[in-house]
Amino acid sequence: MSDQSVVDGLVRFVRARFATDDFIPLHAPVFAGNEQAYVLDTIQSTFVSSVGAYVDRFEADMAAYTGCERAVATMNGTAALHMALRLVGVEPGDLVVTQPLTFVATCNAIAYCGAEPVFVDVDRHTLGLSPAALDAWLAANALVDDGGRCVTNDDGRVVRACVPMHTFGHPADIDGLVEVCARWGIALIEDAAESLGSFYKGRHTGIFGAVGTLSFNGNKVITTGGGGMLLTDATTGKRAKHLTTTAKVPHAYEYVHDEVGYNYRLPNLNAALGCAQLEQLDGFVARKRALADDYRTFLDGSDLTFVVEPDGCRSNYWLNAVICQDMAHREALLAATNREGVMTRPIWALMNNLGMYAGCRRGPLDTAQWLEERVVNLPSSVPPEGAR
Ligand SMILES: *Cc1c(COP(=O)(O)O)cnc(C)c1O
Prior knowledge:
Layout: H1 3-18, H2 35-45, H3 53-66, E1 70-74, H4 77-87, E2 95-98, H5 105-112, E3 116-119, H6 131-141, E4 142-144, E5 150-152, E6 159-163, H7 174-184, E7 187-191, E8 199-200, E9 203-204, E10 211-215, E11 228-232, H8 234-244, H9 268-279, H10 281-299, E12 305-306, E13 313-314, E14 320-323, H11 327-339, E15 345-346, H12 366-372, E16 375-378
Helix pairs in contact: 1-10, 1-11, 2-9, 3-9, 4-5, 6-7
Pyridoxal-5'-phosphate is lined by residues 76-78, 102-103, 105-106, 165, 191, 193-194, 215, 217, 228.
């Protein structure tokens, strides 16, 4: 197939699959369940704000769905990441290892702590942080001191945590990352913002490290308008709730706060939307997986390589992705599809190329660079039922 016929066919395929001649966005929310009833209920009850039954229910439902001991809702995924880093003890001057191929929120949350990201490469088959690259950077730059802390050889900076991200919903090599982090005494935080509904060896992403984080932004698998969640154990969860709710000590009427806390809680209004969306999650993921399967079949044998879930994983296929032959091919695909009203987007610019993170430490980033030049996301909303 030539480039042009692939693009023409792809545009026709996407239009048929979404059953519309209108503009097709990358990812739009679907409200097909109890959203209106639950949101209206919060208004009628007057409990729209920081206290309310839907927050408790959303947290309990999410803990049950993901299989963690405790889930704590936050106002967005970035706030959840910020709290996750604080909960594992990230302090000003610390280093936190992450991948350069991610959404900027991952690095911003590290910066909010006064810490600095360190960029190590991703694996080609997961698009997520490479355990081998992590181990190699640590072996070349750090040691574990007598106190069991991981510190850099040259300037004694503490490497406190590692934040892999499950890119586009595809789980990173979690077993490998758990092993390397344990050996080096580093806390593992999974940025699972994109991977709600994705499983690694049968267990939900976000529950393998000390803390995991989710996002319910409008473009994610399910949305609360804006929102996020911390996934963790019971003890850390209790502390997370305290820290995200102004560190208020329970009392019937006195204002007692025992540390500098945050107002990062999710309003009940948003949690109501979340409860209704979570009821539909399994159906959304099934339809997204069917769409991914159709993309894969359609693109088989073309000059675009469809990104598939890693072995042993069940991905939510949050954003479908293809790998182009080279940058010129990528540009041609982006221009032609967007011209036709079918939205496609390149993968993020590497974090180490953004001004504020350009001076950060890094290992070799060849795979991230290679992917940055070639990966394009295709329309990935939950498709209409039955449309083919
Ligand atoms: C969406 C997202 C977040 C969090 O985003 P919010 O808009 O703050 O909810 C964090 N990391 C990644 C990788 C994301 O895709």
